[in-house]
Write a structure and sequence with these properties.
The chain has two domains: about 1-115; about 135-270, no CATH class. Helix content is about 70%, strand content about 0%. It has helices at about 1-50, 55-80, 90-115, 120-130, 140-145, 150-160, 175-185, 195-205, 210-220, 225, 235-245, 250-260, 260-270. Helix 11 (about 235-245) packs across helix 13 (about 260-270). The protein is elongated, with a radius of gyration of 25 Å.
């Protein structure tokens, strides 16, 4: 009988553990959603400030102050909380100690957040680049080489791969996507063009774990992305760029440097970690 009671007790604990795990998982999902939305909103605000002519240094300061204020609000809310009535003094003492610890952590986070800089410059650079008027005579090599491939077929293959885990709402505008795709495909050599979409899918299958880790560590909602960097992480076009970094890094770099901001490729190169690193 005692053994049966212990078994039922163990089952009860196991059931409670599962419920706690599910609740924690739900919390992580909600936190992840808020982080993801905050990253997108921050990028939108920084680009809007850049478009309005606000200097990157001032934009950094404004956004950092707003974010620090949000953390300070959480600090106030936590600091003013009190233990539920009716508990022993020891419980209240423990509650107060916990509140002081959390409040201290929040204050340090607010101080660090207020001092953050360097997030506006990449957004301003990207905006300035995308606002440049199109050349009346596009450089023939990139256009002609990319035209030899079915760009939409290749892009569709990229979207079917790991990057489908990213919310399409984070993808670049069609104009920016087309420009990056054109440059990336121009680095595909003539003898590689036939069946390149299938080659891309094979590349994904070989490196799926590595691609998923890149997306998790540097994609939208990640800490590095919150600083306004790694804009290509999670974009469908970046799958092609990663494949080219492994296959034809020098050709890719030469095509890229003639047409696009180096910082975009440098960031993705750092995140991917190819065998041949060309950025300084």
């Amino acid at each position: 009988m005692a053994a049966i009671d212990r078994t039922q007790e163990d089952k009860g604990r196991h059931s409670m553990s599962i419920k706690q795990y599910d609740a924690y998982g739900e919390e992580l999902t909600r936190i992840g959603r808020h982080q993801h939305e905050a990253t997108a909103a921050r990028s939108t605000v920084l680009r809007a400030l850049a478009a309005a002519g606000v200097a990157p240094e001032q934009a950094d300061e404004l956004v950092s102050q707003l974010e620090a204020g949000a953390v300070a609000g959480a600090h106030t809310w936590i600091s003013e909380s009190s233990a539920p009535h009716g508990f022993e003094p020891q419980f209240e003492d423990g509650w107060d100690e916990g509140v002081r610890t959390v409040a201290g952590d929040l204050l340090r986070i607010a101080d660090t957040t207020a001092a953050q800089r360097g997030r506006a410059t990449p957004n301003a650079q990207l905006l300035a680049h995308l606002r440049q008027p199109a050349s009346p005579t596009p450089e023939p090599p990139a256009q002609d080489l990319a035209a030899a491939l079915d760009a939409q077929e290749v892009l569709a293959a990229a979207q079917r791969c790991t990057w489908a885990l990213t919310d399409p709402g984070d993808f670049l505008s069609s104009a920016a996507s087309e420009e990056i795709l054109t440059v990336a495909l121009s680095a595909v050599r003539e003898d590689e063009r036939a069946g390149y979409a299938q080659r891309l899918e094979e590349f994904t299958n070989r490196h799926r774990g590595r691609l998923e880790e890149l997306l998790r560590a540097y994609g939208p909602g990640s800490t590095p992305a919150s600083h306004g960097r790694y804009m290509l992480a999670g974009q469908p076009e970046s799958l092609i760029i990663c494949e080219r970094m492994e296959t034809a890094p020098f050709l890719l770099r030469s095509r890229w440097d003639k047409a696009l901001e180096a910082v975009l490729l440098d960031d993705l190169e750092f995140a991917w970690g190819p065998r041949t690193r060309l950025s300084q």
